Amino acid sequence: MKREKEQVREVMMKKLREWGFSDEEIKDEERLSALGLDSLDRVELLMYCENTFNLEEVIPDDKFEKVRTVGEFIDLFC
Predict the structure, then answer these.
(1) How many H helices and E strands in the chain?
(2) Which end of the chain is more exposed for a tag (fewer CB within 10 A), N or C?
């Protein structure tokens, strides 16, 4: 099932707000590393989104490892 980018962005932002980020800080071109997200943070964010969307199949590691920006993360789910 394809999702709208804004739907994915809102789920992602919910988790990022819990971590203290503001909506203004998060732009599609922003690198996840520039936000201070380490590999464990990124995995936690991925799992949160997978669980929220009740994915039957998880995002493959090889696709996830290539993700560098907020926009690329969102595209994983669209």
Answers:
(1) 4, 0
(2) N
